[in-house]
Amino acid sequence: MSWFKRKDKGIQTPTEEKKDIPKGLWYKTPSGKIIDSDDLKANFWVCEEDGYHVRIGSKEYFQIFFDDNVFTELDPNLTSKDSLKFVDTIKYSERLKEAQAKTNLKDAVRTAVGKSLGKDLVIAAMDFSFIGGSMGGVVGEKIARAINYSIQNKIPFLMISKSGGARMMESGSSLMQLVKTSAKLAQLDEAKIPYISLCTDPTTGGATASFSMLGDINIAEPDALIAFAGPRVVKDTTGKELPKGFQHSEFVLEHGFLDAIFERKQLKKQVNLYIDLIQNLPIRS
Questions:
Q1: Is the dihedral of CA 246, 248, 250, 254 positive or negative?
Q2: Which single residue of 117, 202, 221, 236 could bond 15 by disulfide (Cβ 3.0 to 4.6 Å)?
Q3: Coil, strand, or helix at residue 235?
Q4: The CATH number of the domain where 248 resides is what?
Q5: Are 105 and 127 in contact (CB under 8 A)?
Q6: Contact 216/194 with Cβ under 8 angstroms?
Q7: What's the sign of the alpha-carbon dihedral 148, 152, 157, 160?
Q8: 68 confidence band (pLDDT: 50, 70, 90)
Q9: 70 CB contacts (<8 Å, ≥6 apart)?
């Protein structure tokens, strides 16, 4: 799985390039730029000098999109179960407890409803810090319930993807979340409710194979990894040398897989612009 951290010498997963939100007073980007953490936060967790987008989670995206960071979280207490009694290096049940303690999250997605530029918006935002943003039963169920909420209340839906793919510890049931969420999005489409998909770094595996690419509008952040399989896997499978950055958002946009790329500070305005256009409503400023 692309989210699984490999420890063998000389082997690196492609999604390890971008680090999560810095914990200290200073942060160093991959290009060597040093930035004060407070300045980084004030600039939407983007390095002003080189435009580097630090990987953030649901907490920060809710702050970006919801007016005054006011929202109601949906289904906040759903948690995964170890139905298969799965064991790899440790028991899955223990891995879940470790992830919950480390991240203060219940699982790899949070869903919420609130005002964005004055109008209601339902958001499902994934967290890569929770077992690589992997998709298990809870992730699929929370996304499905959020879509149901959108349908019942006629509220536009925004999906913020950040995932390494299906969660292997839940086996086939994790793959069924692709079908489940796609079916729910079909119902959302039938109800003529706008769906905007935002792909962030990384959007891979089952997320790309389902809900992440089914938006009325599919957008991304700069330099986000967007793929089904990682570049190393693709190269080994095809036996060909692949173009540099062929799975990053700029290349993906150029080849018709995305509608637009926006810097993080533009996201709130642009997402709501698309919603207004889709609904043929006056454009909000």
A1: positive
A2: 202
A3: helix
A4: 3.90.226.10
A5: yes
A6: yes
A7: negative
A8: very high
A9: 114, 115
Looking at the domain assignment, is residue 9 inside a domain?
A: no
Which residues, including other chains, have CB under 8 Å from residue 241's CB and lie 6 or more apart? 235
Say how far residue 73 (Cα) sits from the centre of its chain. Answer: 17
Residues in the chain: 285
Tell me, rounded to whole angstroms, the distance of Cα 52 from its chain centroid.
17
Q: Residues 6 or more apart from 158 whose CB is under 8 A from it? A: 65, 121, 122, 123, 124, 195, 196, 197, 198, 271
Compute the distance between CA of residue 171 and CA of residue 81 in angstroms, rounded to an integer.
12
Q: Is 3 within a domain?
A: no
Start-end of H helices in 119-228: 137-153, 171-190, 205-208
pLDDT of 19 higher than 70: no
Domain presence at residue 47: no
> Any residues with CB less than 8 A from the CB of 147 and at least 6 apart, and which?
122, 157, 181, 184, 185, 187, 188
Q: Is 180 a domain residue?
A: yes
Query: Can you give the pLDDT at residue 232?
Result: 80
Closest by alpha carbon to 165, among 125, 211, 197? Answer: 211
Which of 127, 139, 207, 126 shows the shortest CA–CA distance to 170?
139
What pLDDT is stored for residue 6 in this prediction? 44
Does the pLDDT at position 17 exceed 70?
no
Domain count, the chain: 1
The pairs formed by 236-240 with CB atoms below 8 angstroms and a separation of 24 or more are none
Domain housing 186: 57-278
